[in-house]
Amino acid sequence: MHGLSATPAPAVATRRRGAEPLPFELRPFVGHLPHDDLRAAARRARQLGVGADEVLVAQGVVDEAEATDLLATHLGLAVAAPEDAAPPPDAATAEAVLRTGVRIEAPDGGRPRFTLAARGRDVRRLFRALRRDPGLAGRVRLAVPGAFRCAVLTAAGPILAQAAVKRLPDRDPLKSAATLDPKRVLGRIALVVGLPLAGLVALAPEQGVLAVQALLSLVFLGWVSLRLAACAYDAPPDPPPTLDDRQLPVYSLLVPLYREAASVPHLVAALGALDYPPEKLDIKLVVEADDAGTRAAIAALTLPPQMEEVPVPAVGPRTKPKALEVALAAARGSFVAIYDAEDLPEPDQLRRALEAFRTGGPKIACVQARLAIDNGDDSWIAASFAAEYAAQFDVLLPMLSALGLPILLGGTSNHFRRRVLDEVGGWDPFNVTEDADLGIRLARAGWQTRVISSTTYEEAPVTARAWVGQRTRWLKGWAQTLLVHLRQPGALMADLGVGPALALLLLAAGPFAAALVHPFCVALLLADLLRGVIGLPRGSMAEALTSALTFTTLFAGYAGTAAITYVGLRRRARVPGLKVVLGIPFYWLLLSAAAWRALIELLRRPHHWQKTEHGVARHRVAQAAALRRSPSIGVATSPEVGPAHAASAKA
User: Fold this and answer.
1) Taking the CA atoms of the chain, what radius of gyration do you get in angstroms?
2) Is the alpha carbon torsion for 509, 510, 511, 517 positive or negative?
3) What would you measure as the largest C-alpha separation in the chain, in angstroms?
4) What's the pLDDT band for 191 if we cut at 50, 70, 90?
5) DSSP H/E element including 264
6) Which pLDDT score is estimated for 206?
7) Can you tell me the distance from the alpha carbon of 8 to that of 5, in angstroms, rounded to the nearest whole number?
8) CB-based contacts of 371: which residues, under 8 Å, 6+ apart?
9) What distance, in Å, lies between the first and last C-alpha atoms of the chain?
10) Helix or strand run (H / E) with residue 256
11) Please, which residues have CB within 8 angstroms of residue 422's CB and are 6 or more apart in sequence?
12) Residues 6+ apart with CB under 8 A from 55
């Protein structure tokens, strides 16, 4: 045992004069752990509202296998080997076993047998059940909780993955990208909108071009106006967290990883620094089963007890939302948060998210923390990305939250009520921006999203090639999401209301339309400059209006971007550098390249997931190297209970 004497101490009575009796779950440890450790664990358990044995395991005083052996010996029960039991017959049974820690096997003609991964209050219930029916001991085996979950996930992984792939498409096929044929939907849009405009261009070229330009400009200028309006809104400060540790629920954190070996040490350290009782954390490192590099990086660390690996079988599309759906089956928390491999959340983020749920009321289904880039000094593209994030998360999203408008969620630091995730069908495994899609489906189901000021720091791509690859996936996913929800425009309007639906169209279609049209606007401007006709009378009113709309759209876009960037960075106590401001037109040209590439991919490979490389920022490489040199990854422990306290028993 960690930090324990080599020989057991004499048995200690469970009650001392003037002291409360030890809870049932600590009795197996009497005579094996110092009595002061047991008392401290009992006190902390009362403060947290958990089992005292859970405290001992979470604080590293004893590991899960040792705790299970002691409990089994105390109760006279057998310990099950992980490979002993048959795999669950279906996904629903597997999910129930993972959530409850109970597996029931009923042999033909015999009484049911139970395998229990029992901890805390489940141990107390088991004590009482065995006292009422001593014969039950012959039909109950104990399992080591972590090994038990690992065995179930290994055995049931393929059926859980298959269920994850089919969950949303089977429940609500018209809201899943799995049933979307982008070519067909775009063809319908072309017939309804494009064909009349093409006919107008053919019959009256100048008026037709003007009509097309006016339509695109209307969408784009509406998007710019929404962003400029956000600059005038300054969100009030978040209320401070008020829940004490006993009131805190079990919180599950899902962290999807794919080819992220370099980020694993940094990630584990960041999650270990969260200000939340480890006894109430359930952290899943979700990794593709054949991702040998990332799995080796995880195996090389001594993970704290609240963290475990969830392997995802190669069934269905290899996407982040599919991995999240598989991991959700194993999540035990009533609240769920999503983090990415490179994330550095502020330590009190979980507490602040819970406060937003509490003060916002029961209709709040999701809380979005703000994202900020911490490697903006690495390159011009990273600096521009940091400015864009400041505009999005510190200016635009807080206003949308205050107005109750739909929010295209960021891909990380989303906090959910678990029951609502189940209600709306979770993530769409076929959507490459599953976050944006889920935000819309939550809004359509009548749920609300709140944005809090707690920050998660992220790493931006440092090269234009990596940035274009990532942005291609984002734009493809936004277009995919928009097409999915526009298949039934009447239903979308009915679900959201006219105003929120129009705002959603501006938020989703505006950036895409702007990116597609931007090169043509720049080309027209350059052509007029080369011809020397800017400011001169035009041959017709249609030509004059077309040029005016083009230049207005172009410069309104640049000016609006500069304004919202300035406001966002000032709220981050930063000032945009000259290279960022002057680089806006070039940044937009890169955005246009990504948009056209996204449109091609949408037609050819709609479900392809473009992987973004992480762990390449200069300061993060240094952090990861330092962590690899560290002998272990530690977690915060109680001042009363834990390895440091238990070590006193060694002396």
Assistant:
1) 28
2) positive
3) 103
4) confident
5) helix 264-272
6) 63
7) 7
8) 389, 392, 393, 410, 412, 413, 455, 456, 457, 458
9) 15
10) strand 251-257
11) none
12) 41, 44, 45, 48, 279, 638, 641
Q: What is the pLDDT of residue 200?
A: 63
Amino acid residing at 313? P
400: exposed, middle or buried (Cβ count in 10 Å: 0-12, 13-18, 19+): buried
Residue 374 carries which DSSP code? S
What's at 152, amino acid-wise? Answer: V
The three-state secondary structure class of 285 is strand
**Segment 421-449 mean pLDDT:** 95
What does the angle CA 350 – CA 351 – CA 352 come to, to the nearest 5 degrees?
90
Query: What is the DSSP pairing of strand 414-417 with strand 364-373?
Result: antiparallel
pLDDT at 256 over 70: yes
Nearest to 486 by CA among 286, 250, 188, 229: 188
| Phi and psi torsions of 103, nearest 5° | -120, 130
213's tokens: 């330009």
Q: What string of DSSP letters covers 224-246? A: HHHHHHHHT--PPPPPPP---GG
CB 511 within 8 A of CB 220: no
Closest CA to 340 of 267, 421, 265: 267
Handedness of CA 331, 337, 339, 344 (dihedral sign): negative
Distance of CA 160 to the CA centre of its chain: 19
Q: Which single residue is written with the structure tokens 């089977």?
A: 170
Rounded distance between C-alpha atoms, residue 399 and residue 68, angstroms:
51
Contact 349, 454 (CB under 8 A): yes
Calculate the CA 384 to chain-centre distance. 24
DSSP-assigned letter for residue 392: I
